[in-house]
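Page 42, continued from yesterday. The earlier attempt failed because a stray header line got pasted into the input along with the sequence. Redoing it now with the clean sequence only.
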Amino acid sequence: MKYIENTINVKLRFSEVDSLGIVWHGNYLKFFEDGREYLGLQYGMSYNDMHRHKLIMPIVDTELSFKSPLKFGNSAMVKTRMLFSKAAKVIHTYEVYNETTRLLAATGSTTQVFVNENMEMQLNSPVVFENWKNELDWIEA
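This time it went through. Structure tokens are written below.
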């Protein structure tokens, strides 16, 4: 399997925790979003680039599995991978680690598809996206 990846650090804020001081489950999707954003920036396809090229890629599937808690004041590390796909979709996987305890806090994935401006699913990836993918140095696992 081929992929590209990046890692970001997140300082957990009070506004991200519930009444027990544990990160609210919905915030993990924000961490995933941050990972995708910074992966795109690192590899030359930022959200601004996608917008400029009219790439519309809604998320159609999300998976999230919790392993250990993140708490207020902890630091988290989010590892994001974009998997190589020949299909007209983009699959990211995520590992969220609690840097304070060194434990895996969560894993997950998202799948995005390409749609046109009428929100009709496309069977082929846009040429600009394929050209970008072809220029990447993919990691072979």
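Notes: Strands lie at 2-11, 59-66, 75-83, 89-98, 103-113, 139-140.
Reminder to self: strip header lines before submitting.
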